[in-house]
Amino acid sequence: MACSYNFQEDDLVEPLAYHEIQRDLKVNKQKVRETLKTSTAWLHKYQETEISESQVQLTEKQSDCILCDSCYSSCPVLEVNPNFIGPFALTRAYRYTADPREGDIQAVIDNIQSNGIWDCTLCGNCTEVCPQGIDPKMDITMLRGTASQFGYTDPNFQAMDFGFSGGF
């Protein structure tokens, strides 16, 4: 934060939210790093393929993530669901599902269903605070589209009762 913001005298600096405080501003990031394992955001089944410049540009920004946890700390979902894997893990997942060298996109999509893409409110806090200019909100939206191609739908929407009894 200090590299992109000039602090004013009255600014309040606090530890990152949703992290165990170790001392002063130092927080334990281990739990958050575990979400990367949960999301399985890496190449699962590498397939040799040529990548165009436009394909590289599609995911280049996501690779700029410095794991600062600003997006995670700003996410309101963690207030109600501490098991939510968070925006940066989902941005990493998007980076690999959009990579044409990934031969098993469904493996990543399967692992971000529970406490993942459908739990996000798409409020945009994560995008607003990212010092790298990454747009996790858009990445999550894209992941939802990919998930729907594999037959997944929002379980929260499915569970809603709109007062219809199933007929006309």
TrEMBL record:
Q: What is the lineage of its organism?
A: unclassified sequences, metagenomes, ecological metagenomes
Question: What PANTHER family does the annotation carry?
Answer: FUMARATE REDUCTASE IRON-SULFUR SUBUNIT (PTHR43551)
Catalyzed reactions = a quinone + succinate = fumarate + a quinol
Write the protein's name.
Succinate dehydrogenase iron-sulfur protein
Name the keywords, alphabetized.
2Fe-2S, 4Fe-4S, Electron transport, Iron, Iron-sulfur, Metal-binding, Oxidoreductase, Transport
Q: Which organism is it from?
A: hydrothermal vent metagenome
- Cofactor(s) needed: [4Fe-4S] cluster
Q: Where is the 4Fe-4S ferredoxin-type domain?
A: 56-83, 110-139
GO terms, molecular function: 2 iron, 2 sulfur cluster binding; 4 iron, 4 sulfur cluster binding; metal ion binding; succinate dehydrogenase (quinone) activity
Q: Which InterPro entries match?
A: 4Fe4S_Fe-S-bd, 4Fe4S_Fe_S_CS, Helical_ferredxn, Succ_DH/fum_Rdtase_Fe-S
One GO biological process term is:
tricarboxylic acid cycle
